[in-house]
Protein: ABC transporter permease
Amino acid sequence: MRILNALKSDVKFQFKQGFYFVYIILTLLYMIVIGQIPNKFINYVVPIVIFTDPSFIGFFFIGGIVMLEKIQGVLQYLVITPLSPKEYLISKTISLTILAELAGFAITLVTYKDSFNWIILFLGILLTSIFYTLYGFIVASGCNTINQYFVKMIPYLLILIIPLLVYFSFPNITVLKAMPPVSGFNLIYGAFNGIKLIEALGYIAYMSVINFFTLLIVENIFIKNIIKGGAL
Structure:
């Protein structure tokens, strides 16, 4: 029940701060741009857009949310509320993942005319968004302003982008599939272009484990920086 109440508050907060409005505009722009692309490229463009945008919502937005809550004093009062650090993180992650799912499926339903595996797409966006939201929280640790977060996130983002770029050029390098961004992309791409069930289940299981341990790491950072009086 506490997580549900926190989730409602997070969604209201994000809506009030204009996150939903900004993303509606961005989603509409993506729809317009994709609509101009020849059909023969749609199978490649749509999964790339969905992976690099809706699935990245958490990474780009979590820093702004944390900074706003820090300025408003929300984080300082969190220690005296019944909400645990893990519940706080889960609520934030779910709220941004909902936004990612809405944007991803809106883009797909409007721009993609062929059939696709909506279950795999849903899970691909879900697991990727969770990972990037938690990863973004790690980046936000130690930042006091949004500008600091934007500067700090560049090298962290490159750590995840470079393996993807290498994978696009050399897809036969198996070890790259162990990188969470590559696993997430393969799930989303497979939703449109086909993927073996055993492979999909492997990616889903792997990303679930990665997200679980990432949550534990982020929880420790949160407790150290907030509960014990450090600087988030």
